[in-house]
Design goal:
Shape: globular
Mean pLDDT: 86
Radius of gyration: 21 Å
Number of domains: 1
Structural class: mainly alpha
Number of helices: 16
Order of helices and strands: HHHHHHHHHHHHHHHH
Distance between the termini: 38 Å
Low-confidence stretches: 2-11
Strand content: under 5%
Helix content: over 70%
């Protein structure tokens, strides 16, 4: 899998192209691919909802585990991306190659963890939400096992995408993501409803379609890495793992993993709070996280485009380009989040009806979407600030922001509010917690600027 390294390294576009043009060029492929990924997640749930509300609830129960798989793979990839881009910016080519080669090994190690989770922890996890022998229980168990045991493809695909993104190549990762998403969307109705001569598999079909799409995305990524010319070289044979490089990767990657895993843990515990009041509320929260991905995924795509630019220019000690990238990213994120807020405020009923919402789901879901979406604008500032923290090697600052928002914020607030005013009032925990996170991020940005950036 060793490949050629391009000779054109000196005039890296991340240090020369005008910032606005560069950010747009870097971000749009990631925005497109992540939006398509959000689409296939929503389509997946729309098809499952047509099977039954119980089927949708089963998938919603497993959703935090899927988020955890993504958290580990993407979080590791963030560390890899940050280290490679900083090393390239500082002109340390050999260390950048070392980080890329180490990243592939990390992807394989991540898979082993989730393979064990799928085999051993499926039954105890699902049992905490559904009674054994029920349709929800059986469907959730099958779905979780397939997703975990088949997670090899996603873990490797994400690592390859992050390596390519760190060098400024955003088109190839987009192609990988689009391939997986398109395959998933095509296979979903065929396998769920038994079209084209296939058996009707229901929730099982949705899981198989997801894993098959990930397999195709990984294959495309592997082909591109082997046959293309890139700014880093990946070695498979004769490579000796350097544990110092692993430590450097996880200085940024581990806080990112924990930060994203907190979202999964938050959803697991929030579902436990809700299930005592209404299983429909669990399905509503699952629907919200599917729909909100259309708003957040473009901003996360912007994040992916901005991070290597920030990391490169931080390594190159170019303060102006670093801060210009931050300001442009924040401006775009606020526009996207503002539009998302308007849609959630004006059309909550229409959004829920895409999932064959019952009268009870509409009763719970309409106020839920309107209240939770208030958090979108403050979240924009938090996401772009976290990008700056990670790109400059300060992943712990991002971690603490997530802890404040999702463990010390959302869950305690939800626990209290649901007892004061029921399920509807509990949704206010989202915007309240986001305001807490915004305050912390603003303070830390000022601290980072005064301590390090101003001296570049």
């Amino acid at each position: 899998m060793e490949k050629k390294t391009t000779e054109i390294k000196i005039e890296n576009k991340m240090g020369t192209m005008p910032v606005r043009q560069l950010l747009v060029n870097m971000a749009w492929p990631a925005i497109l691919s992540m939006t398509i990924n959000a689409l296939y997640n929503v389509v997946d749930s729309i098809f499952v909802a047509q099977v039954s509300e119980d089927a949708l609830t089963a998938v919603s129960i497993v959703n935090p585990i899927q988020m955890l798989i993504i958290a580990l793979s993407v979080g590791s990839g963030v560390g890899i991306n940050s280290l490679i881009s900083r090393r390239l910016g500082a002109g340390r080519q050999e260390e950048a190659d070392q980080a890329a080669s180490t990243g592939v090994r990390i992807g394989l190690m991540n898979y082993i963890f989730f393979f064990v989770v799928g085999l051993i922890l499926t039954v105890p996890f699902v049992s905490s939400y559904a009674q054994k022998g029920t349709y929800i229980y059986e469907a959730a168990c099958v779905y979780m096992r397939i997703i975990c045991i088949g997670s090899l493809f996603l873990n490797v695909q994400v690592v390859l995408e992050k390596i390519l993104q760190s060098t400024g190549n955003m088109i190839a990762p987009m192609i990988c993501s689009l391939t997986g998403a398109i395959v998933n969307i095509v296979l979903d109705p065929i396998l769920i409803f038994g079209l084209a001569g296939m058996p009707r598999l229901g929730v099982t079909g949705a899981a198989i379609a997801t894993v098959t799409g990930q397999l195709c995305g990984m294959c495309v990524g592997t082909f591109i890495v082997i046959n293309g010319e890139h700014l880093v070289s990946i070695k498979i044979k004769g490579f000796k793992l350097n544990w110092n490089t692993v430590v450097d990767i996880y200085r940024v990657g581990l806080p990112s993993i924990i930060m994203q895993s907190i979202g999964s843990l938050m959803l697991i515990l929030y579902n436990m709070i809700l299930v005592a009041y209404s299983t429909t509320a669990v399905a509503v929260l699952g629907i919200y996280f599917k729909i909100q991905s259309f708003v957040f995924m473009p901003v996360f795509g912007l994040n992916q485009g901005a991070m290597p630019i920030m990391g490169y220019n931080y390594g190159a000690r170019d303060k102006k380009r670093l801060m210009d990238t931050y300001k442009e990213g924040l401006r775009i994120a606020l526009i996207v989040m503002g539009l998302g807020t308007l849609i959630f405020q004006l059309f909550p009923s229409e959004l829920l009806k895409m999932f064959d919402a019952s009268a009870e789901m509409l009763r719970i879901g309409i106020p839920a979407l309107r209240i939770i979406s208030i958090c979108f604008l403050p979240a924009a500032f938090g996401i772009i600030s976290s990008t700056m923290f990670q790109a400059t090697g300060h992943g712990m600052l991002s971690l603490f922001a997530s802890l404040l928002r999702q463990l010390f914020g959302i869950l305690p607030l939800a626990y209290v509010l649901i007892r004061i005013g029921g399920v509807t009032l509990s949704w206010a925990s989202f915007p309240l917690a986001e305001i807490i996170g915004l305050t912390y991020s603003a303070i830390m940005m000022v601290h980072l600027y005064n301590k390090e950036i101003v001296n570049l």
